[in-house]
Amino acid sequence: MAAATARIAPTGLNAQTPGAAQRYGKEKLIVRSMRPPDFETPVALLDSFITPIEHFYVRCHMPVPQVDAASWTLKVGGEVDSPLSLSLDEIKKLPAHTITMTLECAGNGRAFFEPAMAGIQWEKGAVGTARFTGARMSDILKKAGTRASALNVEMHAADRPMGTQPAFVRQVPMTKAVHPDTIIAWDMNGQPIPLAHGAPLRAIVPGWEGAYSIKWLNALNLIPRDSDSFWVATGYRYPNRRVAPGAAVDARDMEPLRGMPVKSLITIPANGAALAAGKINVGGFAWAGENDIKAVDISTDNGATWQPARLTGEQARFAWRRFEYTLNADKAQSYLILSRATDSLGNMQPAVSQWNPSGYLWNQYDSVRVEVKGA
Ligand SMILES: Nc1nc2c(c(=O)[nH]1)N[C@H]1C(S)=C(S)[C@@H](COP(=O)(O)O)O[C@H]1N2
Ligand SMILES: [Mo]
User: Fold this and answer.
1) Cβ atoms 139, 95 nearer than 8 A
2) Which secondary-structure segment (H or E) carries 2?
């Protein structure tokens, strides 16, 4: 667990590149990469159920494209009876559906794995919760007439690869594509989706890792097989068995990521805080992809004993749940506060995350250390 608390004041590239996140209105975020823009939310700014857009993390594999909403089209083709090209206005005429979703990058927490691997060194803040409004993907597919032969929906986007990078094409299996909560969104937190978050249209595939929620979406291609896109065939895969940290894993033993594992994040107090002895409010969020949160427990004795936290606030199927705990810190000493969530299927956060070659799904107990001073 030491790795999770070692980095007390994450700064990313901010010191070298002051204002790098300004053009996206993301001044308060940690710059992990400038080009393409990859910005992480400091944990202190995740202390609200809905993450305001200016605090919402940004993950881009390639530069943000130029978009024109007025001439935008979403093409639907492949295994359909009538291929379509829909304008934004036509899509907005379909029944609107709002989903409150916790979006998290599969690589959130990558920086804590030992041995380290290549990739954006996300710590705890490549996650946020927003309300997305859009049309159901199933309504759009129905318009085109889905054929029985369709197995997956390939999603294409307007961002263009850098150098030899393959285009960002992903697929979602038909069953998830037609789920009533899978939408094609034009609105985020009550405003048109901002450019960095995929304007004018993005897929929202709730409960699954963030890379399914394709930004700048411009085509759905129904296919009778698995996509041969690099980002499906090779990327976003996880070993089907436990492997030793640093081990090479055969490509045949790698399976696609789908839902997200149970996880918690302590948003108050801040790691490293100096506090007066007495009652300390501990709070944060817990989430588990498609599953609900059943319990969050807190330990202040390195995991020997656990006390239940209160689950409070709004409940939404694919969103994180607030937890609160009152710690009676009557001793002047150092406290390591651990949080451990359990989901509706009984899955519990592990004490140690399973290492994997791409550094995905880091979900071990969260921890913050605070120094309590006598009165
Ligand atoms: N077209 C496109 N869509 C994309 C990406 C991308 O690089 N290009 N990044 C994905 C990844 S890896 C994540 S985690 C989420 C991040 O969404 P956000 O930037 O709105 O937070 O978008 C996904 N959608
Ligand atoms: Mo991601």
Assistant:
1) yes
2) helix 2-6
pLDDT tens figures, 34-70: 999 999 999 999 999 999 999 999 999 999 999 999 9
Residue count of the chain: 375
**What residue spans define the domains of the chain?**
263-373
Task: Record the tokens describing residue 289, joined without a space.
Answer: 């992809």
* pTM of full prediction above 0.85: yes
Specify the CATH number of the domain 263-373: 2.60.40.650
Index of the ligand 1 atom closest to the CA of residue 106: 14
Q: Is the CB of 39 under 6 A from ligand 1?
A: no
The two beta strands, 183-188 and 127-136, are antiparallel
CA–CA distance, 286 with 293 (Å, rounded to integer) = 7
For residue 88, the Cα-to-chain-centroid distance in whole angstroms is 26
Q: Which ligand is nearest to the CA of 156?
A: 1
Residue type, position 370, single letter: V
311 CB-contact burial (10 Å; exposed 0-12 / middle 13-18 / buried 19+): middle
Task: State in Å: Cα 323 to ligand 2 middle.
Answer: 25
